[in-house]
Amino acid sequence: MSETYYTQEFIDIAHASRPLLSLKHTSEEWVGQVLSALFPELCKVADCEDRLVKERLESIKKLTKALSQLVHSVPIEPESLFGTLLEIRQLLLLDAQAILDGDPAATTLDEVILSYPGFFAVAHYRLAHYLHTVGLKLVPRIITEKAHRETGIDIHPGAVIGERFFIDHGTGVVIGETTVIGSGVKLYQGVTLGALSISKEMAKSKRHPTIEDDVLIYANSTILGGETVIGRGSIIGGNAWITESVAPGSFVKYNPK
Questions:
Q1: Which of 15, 64, 117, 199 is within CB 3.0–4.6 Å of 151 for a Cys-Cys bond?
Q2: 213/205: higher pLDDT
């Protein structure tokens, strides 16, 4: 085998991969720019002058168009894009306030936004979920995987999550694609909201649990199955293993034998 031959073979592989490399880079740049626009305190530099804010918004518009073109999706109009982003900011402020209200260690809203991995992961999820709902399937996965890589929190963009969502500590949390979570829910580290062992043919079915409003789930609990519902106001103790529904207002704890 000549050097020219095997060199060209790898060059051909690189050429074939360029669209996906561009998609990954653009997706991660998009979420960074959007979060910096919604929460300027997350900017890497102090660049909140009017001119620079306008430049960032223009960049977001161009990146959104580029994402649509890369995945051959229907273009997202700027009017709907920026209106939705402001709505997502309001949801995220409610999430941040829930953390501040629910964690004695949190002292200010700024501290939550700047330093809490749960907020970082949920912010990425909410933006990814928006893109998921408008039909960009691969891009949202890239965005939530970025948060997973940086926080250890794995939230599928297809999950549906209500207001005032609080992930405390967060490392090892897994939330599956068809999970439905109500408002005012709090999870600790290591919680899995997953599927029972199923076949690939069930990919489009409801495979993950439903968590109703105001549920508290302590560390390392595992809740599985699309028909499993954790009733409103329930408390799930640490290390619990649950594959059946729980009535509202229940207290479930791990009971080693």
A1: 117
A2: 213
